[in-house]
């Protein structure tokens, strides 16, 4: 098991440059940095090459996260949007591969966060989502990338809210590089049992996000970490465990994640780093790796 952190912990915008964080997370002792793929198509070849080299020099693996915008939604009822989504993913995956990234996770099958001022067509969106993911899976596979479909809570997405729904979706897609992704923050809202949800995903679990129920770093709240760690060991999970803390107000990240109060307790960057380091030690101990 390898442990990582989403660099957006320190940032306010998904567009924030992630290059400088490679060395920072290495110094904190992480194995992985997760980067936002939303704006990767704006990086130059030279930028990507430099980040790849920096990852190599620092012994860091990169993974990618993405919440596709409404205009790139693979499950849209509008065929032009689905087409734009496919083109966007092909370009994004091509650039992601330049960083040797083997895992991209998020609401790849839909868009995020969902606009609930419009009527919801869960069945239709799900069917188009299966088709959309099926349509980009081989492209990703040729680049050596796994597509990890994130199960989200009801307030952020309607298509997949439970591990069982994630498994049914991924099974229907039926491609070896399309996997289920779970996140303890979302599970805490939707699942009857953390252990059971992880066992339900079993060998299909491709990526795992962690955070407390208020999205603070693992180890400071009331998440049942021992139960989660036992279940991950039971299914012999050897993939990435990426903590995804969101604690700062402001910017697009603050508003997309609905952070309306300072969850850092006024921490400066040094204290934020220390919190991350402590959360990593806690995660290695309780979850393994
Ligand atoms: O859990 C979430 C959102 O609540 C994320 O994984 C998100 O989809 C991604 O971070 C967007 O970049
Ligand atoms: Mn997540």
UniProtKB/TrEMBL annotation:
Claim: Isomerase is one of the keywords in the record: yes
Reaction(s) catalysed (UniProt annotation) = D-allulose = keto-D-fructose
Question: What SUPFAM superfamilies does the entry give?
Answer: Xylose isomerase-like
Gene3D superfamilies listed in its UniProt record:
Divalent-metal-dependent TIM barrel enzymes
Looking at the keywords, is Membrane present? no
Q: Where is the Xylose isomerase-like TIM barrel domain?
A: 22-261
Q: Which UniProt keywords apply?
A: Cobalt, Isomerase, Manganese, Metal-binding
Enzyme superclass (EC):
isomerase
* Gene Ontology molecular function: any one: cobalt ion binding
* The protein's Enzyme Commission number: 5.1.3.30
Needed cofactors: Co(2+); Mn(2+)
Q: Which InterPro entries match?
A: Sugar_Epim/Isomerase, Xyl_isomerase-like_sf, Xyl_isomerase-like_TIM-brl
This protein's assembly is summarised as: Homotetramer.
Its family remark reads: Belongs to the hyi family.
Q: What is this protein called?
A: D-psicose 3-epimerase
Source taxonomy: Bacteria, Pseudomonadati, Pseudomonadota, Alphaproteobacteria, Hyphomicrobiales
């Amino acid at each position: 098991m390898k442990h990582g952190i989403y660099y957006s912990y320190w940032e306010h915008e998904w567009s924030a440059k992630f290059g400088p964080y490679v060395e920072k997370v290495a110094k904190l002792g992480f194995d992985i940095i997760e980067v936002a793929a939303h704006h990767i198509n704006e990086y130059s070849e030279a930028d990507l090459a430099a980040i790849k080299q920096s990852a190599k020099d620092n012994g860091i693996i990169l993974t990618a996260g993405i919440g596709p915008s409404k205009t790139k939604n693979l499950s849209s009822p509008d065929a032009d949007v689905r087409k734009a989504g496919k083109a966007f993913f092909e370009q994004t995956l091509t650039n992601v591969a330049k960083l040797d990234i083997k895992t991209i996770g998020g609401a790849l099958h839909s868009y995020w966060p969902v606009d609930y001022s419009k009527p919801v067509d869960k069945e239709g969106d799900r069917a188009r989502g299966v088709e959309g993911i099926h349509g980009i899976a081989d492209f990703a596979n040729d680049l050596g990338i796994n597509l990890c479909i994130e199960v989200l809570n009801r307030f952020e997405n309607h298509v997949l809210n439970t591990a069982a729904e994630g498994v049914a979706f991924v099974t229907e897609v039926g491609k070896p590089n399309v996997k289920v992704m779970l996140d303890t923050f979302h599970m805490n809202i939707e699942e009857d049992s953390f252990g059971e949800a992880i066992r339900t995903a079993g060998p299909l679990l491709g990526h795992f996000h962690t955070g407390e129920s208020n999205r603070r770093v693992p180890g400071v709240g009331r998440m049942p970490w021992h139960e989660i760690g036992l279940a991950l060991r039971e299914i012999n999970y050897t993939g990435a465990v990426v903590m995804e803390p969101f604690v700062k107000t402001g910017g697009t990240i603050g508003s997309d994640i609905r952070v309306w109060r300072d969850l850092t307790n006024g921490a400066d960057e040094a204290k934020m780093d220390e919190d991350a380091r402590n959360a990593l030690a806690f995660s290695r101990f309780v979850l393994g790796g």
